[in-house]
Amino acid sequence: MASPTNTEAARDTEAYFHYYPFDAPAPPPIYVNAARDSYKSHDVDRRLMRVRDLRSLSPASFEAEEALSLDTAGIALIPHHPTSAPFDSAEQIAAHYYPEVEKLVKDLTHATQVHIFDHVVRRSAPGSSESTAAQTAARGPLYHVHVDSSPAAAAARIAAIVPGLPASARTQILNVWRPLRTVERDPLAVCDARSVRDEQLVRVKLVYDDHESESLAARWAEGHRWWYVSGQTRDELLVFRIYDSAGQRGVCHSAFVLPGNQGGAGRESIEVRCVVVFDGAEGEGG
Q1: pLDDT over 50 (residue 39)
Q2: How far is residue 118's CA from residue 174's CA, in Å, rounded to a whole number?
Q3: pTM of the entire predicted model
Q4: Are 53 and 228 spatial neighbours (Cβ–Cβ below 8 Å)?
Q5: What is 257-280 written as a DSSP string?
């Protein structure tokens, strides 16, 4: 994992995160691409958590004290200057940005195959904050603690994208997250996967226009270790694990309200999700 820059400007903070309540029934479905919000205020367990700035870590800390990496915590901070801007249309993104992400992920993981299957561009709705219906309709930042895919849904997606892989093949799904401009408010926080336990995760149905899938919501625990990148720029990528067939847990993440920064420009970001195949395994499409 590349070491963070500007350690002198590091800014640890405390912020509220929206967890799934302990006493709540099964979560309602989340309707993706629809102006619906399944996380009303009475459906969340709002907890004040410490959020450490990745810029606070020295290069030695990455390798020793914190041991933060994609293989351990499920998190990597990578410098990368995009050459394929602008991000004006889905067609431009697929044609020009996808190849950059594929190369970056191969270089980072030493995988033999990388298959990008979707992306989301998020923009804060004007004048809105936290989990409002306006944010949902605009595909704005998500303010509930979640993992993008449950293990079962991730394995099914991999089988559909790369059919015929041997059972022994190691696979992952990764999220490659980039701001489209320097983040002034509502940054993304990621939680060290080692600080979360399986029994704290709750399955949530996702309903799309043409299919259904499943993500994970999270219940609060005091030991969750949260990280973000203060003032994250367009040239700084957060790469984090959604799924690993080797059994390593996906990374919980969430937008959060940065104290004192709500007057800043709304956040704009792009996240690209990809299937990663290791060990020279070849599927039918390999």
Answers
A1: no
A2: 11
A3: 0.88
A4: yes
A5: --TT-TTSPPPEEEEEEEEEE-TT
